[in-house]
Amino acid sequence: MSIEARKIRLLMQLRKSGVTDTRVLGAIERVPREIFVPETFHDQAYEDMALPIGMGQTISQPLIVALMTQALEVGDRHKVLEIGTGSGYQAAVLARLCRRLYTIERHKPLLDVAQQRLAQMRIHNVTAKAGDGTKGWPEQAPFERILVTAAHGGIEAPKALTDQLGVGGIMVIPMGSERRKQRVVRFRRSDAGIEREDLWPVRFVPLLPDEPEGDASAAHRE
Ligand code: SAH
User: Fold this and answer.
1) What pLDDT digit, counting tens, does each position of 155-187 carry?
2) What is the value of pTM for the model shown?
3) Which domain holds residue 36?
């Protein structure tokens, strides 16, 4: 089956599974997922599954990327913060939908590769940095939207992140201490405070504090 045929099949699956936002489907259609996965997995780029990207991390399953992006209700005037750049795939999808994306990754080697891919796609509205995303990006706050793509183990949302969410803002974040009991949670900030909505169950790699040690050597190991 050609890449194009596989992509169409995937888009049909996403629609069937509840992705109805045509802007989100359009963005998924326009981002070539194969350039964000290691070469050995190219033939699986349009299967609806998570794939390894090195450093013990994964590129999320396309359905989860699509549903989380849809839940985020991103508009083209929005300034968006993503925590967990990983392969850069979700960043590319968000960048197609918003005005400006800020993205943070704790593994510098992953970030470097992600940035090369975004440049290759001529995506110029993304600012990326290596660091601990749980602290947010205070110099750039407030954000209209925040998307976290690693699971937060706490019961409450990370305060640094809700603090950096503007009034009227939305944050989508997987939460739950046990890997088997994670849920995607949506927070909406209004004048009255912060409203929480639990969405569907997921399995994400953990959101880890601080920056890792010894990344430079680890990069060669993959
Ligand atoms: N959005 C990514 C998914 C990557 S998986 C994609 O489309 O490919 C989650 C990523 O979050 C991993 O790369 C992991 O290293 C990163 N991560 C975990 N904790 C983090 C933190 N505190 N700050 C920034 N990135 C973090």
Assistant:
1) 999 999 999 999 999 999 999 977 678 999 999
2) 0.95
3) 3-221
